[in-house]
Amino acid sequence: MISRPPAAPPAAPPAAPPESAATPPRPDRLKKQKAASLALYIGLVLLALWVVRDFIAVVAWAGVVAIALWPLLRRVEGNRWFTGRTTLIAVAMTLAIALLVVLPVGIVIAQALGEAHDLNEWFKSAQENGIAVPDFIGRLPFGVQQISDWWQANLAQPLRGSAAMKGLHSTTVITLGRHFGARAVHAMVVFAFMLVTLFVIFQAGPRLSGSLLKAMRKGFGEDGAALLQRMAAAVRGTVSGLVVVGLGEGALMGVAYFVAGLPHVALLGFITAIAAMLPFCAPITFGLAALWLVAQGSVAAAIGLAVFGSVVVFIAEHFVRPVLIGNSTRLPFLLVLFGILGGAETFGLLGIFIGPALMTVLMVLWTDLVK
């Protein structure tokens, strides 16, 4: 009997192709995936912005200060004594910014508290005896009798039971005081968080600016990076044109206040400097000071103060400030003015610096359209 060879095992089924060798998805499916990813990214970004919405202003303020001081930061980092000491540089510059803000505000508060006692005594005297007719009313060119009669009938009498004194103790005034206190506390908290954010920005240093420029080049090309640099230059020029010129005006007017014999020269100079940082607000401060001199009988000093202040403001507003801002941003003065005023109306004090940057974007778009 002849034996048969063993039967061959059945052939194994063909193996399934690996996932990498699978058929690529269809183009319409790829489009849907990209659209879904884009929607997801946009939703996550909007959610993150909503979470940190109360700190956006803090980051914006820190960004404005950092942009203004960035050339100084790079110069300090280039010094051989500070090479590689980014934390030390960040701490020093942050403390300097804090002192530049805290010291003037502290001086103003100290002078205000020093005058609180005298103001309280005057207030008590007005309640008990009324307010005497000022001497300057008798020197007015017209209306002396009418003003004197009204003053005697309304202010020269004891004011304890008057409607004005009752209004000072009303719930409206108390509510306004509480609101002012809450705003002051909020401003201090914002300032503290701004200092922390500013320290982080300074510590990041060139790495942060390089990352921003790289992201703009990757997302928008070289034109986007150039636009970002021009916007930074616009913010820097606005800070120089507003803050530096405002401080200069405040210093010059402080000297004029001292020469004119006004009290509290440091306080008045600081208020004038703050007002001069806003367009066309400095005349309000030295105008009120001139009126006070007129009330005291110093007409010549009042005229001299008003004339000197007008000359300083005219030169600063029409020559110095447009040159500082316009040369940095390469914007016409009218666009700079619209950007400052419109930004202040839209975004508040922060908008003074954001407005010219947005006008720079508008100017770049217009230039590209014309070309």
UniProtKB/TrEMBL annotation:
- Region (Disordered): which ranges? 1-28
InterPro entries named among the record's database cross-references:
AI-2E-like (IPR002549)
Q: What are the Pro residues biased-composition ranges?
A: 1-17
Q: How does it sit in the membrane?
A: Multi-pass membrane protein
**What keyword terms does UniProt attach to this protein?**
Membrane, Transmembrane, Transmembrane helix
Q: Where in the cell is it found?
A: Membrane
Query: Where are the bilayer-spanning segments?
Result: 35-52, 58-76, 88-113, 184-204, 239-260, 266-292, 299-320, 332-365
Q: Is-annotated flag, keyword Disulfide bond?
A: no
Entries under Pfam families matching the protein: AI-2E_transport
One GO cellular component, as annotated? membrane
Q: Which family does it belong to?
A: Belongs to the autoinducer-2 exporter (AI-2E) (TC 2.A.86) family.
Among PANTHER family, the record links this protein to: BLR8064 PROTEIN (PTHR21716:SF61), TRANSMEMBRANE PROTEIN (PTHR21716)
Q: What protein is this chain from?
A: Predicted PurR-regulated permease PerM
